[in-house]
UniProtKB/TrEMBL annotation:
Enzyme class: isomerase
Chief subcellular location: cytoplasm
CDD domains the UniProt entry points to: OAT_like
Modified residues (N6-(pyridoxal phosphate)lysine): 266
Assembly notes: Homodimer.
Record keywords: Cytoplasm, Isomerase, Porphyrin biosynthesis, Pyridoxal phosphate
Name listed for the protein in its UniProt record: Glutamate-1-semialdehyde 2,1-aminomutase
PANTHER family in alphabetical order: GLUTAMATE-1-SEMIALDEHYDE 2,1-AMINOMUTASE, GLUTAMATE-1-SEMIALDEHYDE 2,1-AMINOMUTASE 2
Species: Tenacibaculum piscium
One function term, GO molecular function aspect: glutamate-1-semialdehyde 2,1-aminomutase activity
Recorded metabolic or biological pathway in which this protein acts: Porphyrin-containing compound metabolism; protoporphyrin-IX biosynthesis; 5-aminolevulinate from L-glutamyl-tRNA(Glu): step 2/2
Reactions this protein catalyses: (S)-4-amino-5-oxopentanoate = 5-aminolevulinate
Matches recorded under InterPro entries: 4pyrrol_synth_GluAld_NH2Trfase, Aminotrans_3, PyrdxlP-dep_Trfase, PyrdxlP-dep_Trfase_major, PyrdxlP-dep_Trfase_small
Gene: hemL
Length: 429
């Protein structure tokens, strides 16, 4: 397998693009080597500029849940394109997609479409502050909620301390109202409430996907919601990644909790840039033009994204692939564990619905600190071996793998063979 054209494009891209990429993870920094440049995709497969074809377990980090270029989504997008690209005005499809989304989430009466998951989250946090009249937000270490200043933070030395900026260019003042807690640890949340009386709410991914797949303890979310209600604070659930991936709706429902504010993205645009935040009427009344919390966007509710989203969710509901997703994820988990055992490689596998990934550690992973015990050098070797055996993975130990309903039995056999060869390569390090 050769990557000559990708290497050539990488060098060319360095001239006018930052690191030759437009999102850092694409640079392959954590796995070494040059990034791959993609030419096309169809169904469960993706093809790079060197004409290497892979089974795609990245799926644009989640939204291609039906596989690439599904015929019904393609048809809907083509039809929408004939009518225009953007109007800066309302369209009927915004209303149609809003109903589909609200009907899928108990506790969501109204939704506002935006252009990205980051925008959805920053708007959801602003809404929580507007509704409660309080300023501070608690987030969990290892949960990623976009690149807005207030959430690009790392934990301080103590659970109840204010956080420090986790990126250059983020002033301390931008994060002074952000507090860090430990995922799956309710006591770390309570410690903040004992120290502060102005906490508007807590934001989390119901299933973490950016420290690898990390699943909450049984009743963690229920107990968190009950505690927040006793404190007059809101639960903000970031389902940008998990929305419609474990059921038709949100992971929160499977976990027995209803968010006060839900943030969405990825799947609801069918591959186009889109995000959304929604809540019950009482909370959404705060949003302009109904209330005093201002948020706007010229391209929000873009007609092409709305068409792609309606077609994707309509087909997803028809297929109802969720039992199949669980079965497939379990099969991949077994591939990983059996192969790791065969070659005596330490691996822990986490999965939920259509999200799965291995951690190269012998530690059970329930939070970010435990995820960081993973051997990233072993993952890098595993990653490139998978690539060379025809399986496209996220180029990071700390990213979830995603499944599409387009995956076939033949694909799974190829994934199994690739995993075996990749584990063998790791064992020889």
């Amino acid at each position: 397998m050769e990557f000559k054209k990708s290497q050539k494009l990488y060098k060319k891209g360095l001239i006018n693009l930052v690191g030759a990429v437009n999102s850092p993870v694409r640079a392959f920094s954590s796995v070494g080597g040059n990034p791959l440049f993609i030419k096309k995709a169809k169904g469960s497969k993706i093809t790079d500029v060197d004409n290497n074809t892979y089974i795609d377990l990245v799926l644009s980090y989640g939204p291609m849940i039906l596989g690439h270029r599904h015929k019904k989504v393609q048809k809907a997008i083509t039809k929408a394109l004939k009518n225009g690209y953007s109007f800066g005005a309302s369209t009927e499809n915004e209303i149609k997609l809003a109903k589909i989304v609200c009907d899928a989430f108990p506790g969501m009466d109204k939704v506002r479409f935006v252009n990205s998951g980051t925008e959805a989250v920053l708007s959801g946090i602003r809404l929580a502050r507007a509704f409660t009249g309080k300023d501070k937000i608690i987030k969990f270490a290892g949960c990623y909620h976009g690149h807005q200043d207030a959430l690009l933070v790392a934990a301080g030395s103590g659970l109840a301390t204010l956080s420090l900026p986790g990126s250059k260019g983020v002033p301390e003042g931008a994060v002074e109202n952000t507090l860090i807690a430990t995922y799956n640890d309710l006591e770390s949340v309570k410690a903040h409430f004992e120290a502060h009386d102005d906490i508007a709410g807590v934001i989390l991914e119901p299933i973490a996907g950016n420290m690898g797949v990390v699943v909450p303890y049984t009743n963690f979310l229920k107990e968190l919601k009950t505690y927040l209600e006793s404190k007059g604070a809101l639960l903000i659930v970031d389902e940008v990644m998990t929305g419609f991936r474990s059921k038709f709706g949100g992971a929160q429902e499977l976990l027995g909790v209803t968010a006060d504010i839900t943030c969405l993205g990825k799947v609801i645009g069918g591959g186009f840039p889109v995000g959304a935040y929604g809540a019950r009427n009482e909370i959404m009344q705060e949003v302009a033009p109904l209330g005093g919390m201002y948020q706007a966007g010229t391209l929000s509710g873009n007609p092409i994204a709305m068409a792609g989203g309606i077609a994707t969710l309509t087909e997803l509901k028809r297929q109802n692939p969720y039992d199949k997703f669980n079965e497939t994820a379990q099969v991949i988990e077994e591939f990983l564990l059996n192969s790791a055992n065969k070659y005596k490689v330490d691996v822990t596998v986490n999965r939920f619905g259509s999200m799965v990934n291995p951690f190269f550690t012998n530690v059970t992973v329930t939070n970010f600190e435990q995820a960081q015990t993973s051997d990233t050098k072993k993952f890098a070797t595993f990653f490139w071996a998978m690539i060379k055996n025809g399986v496209f993975l996220p180029p990071s130990q700390f990213e979830a793998w995603f499944l599409a309903s387009a995956l076939t039995k033949k694909d799974l056999k190829k994934i199994a063979k690739a995993i075996d060869k990749a584990m063998e390569a790791v064992s020889k390090m």
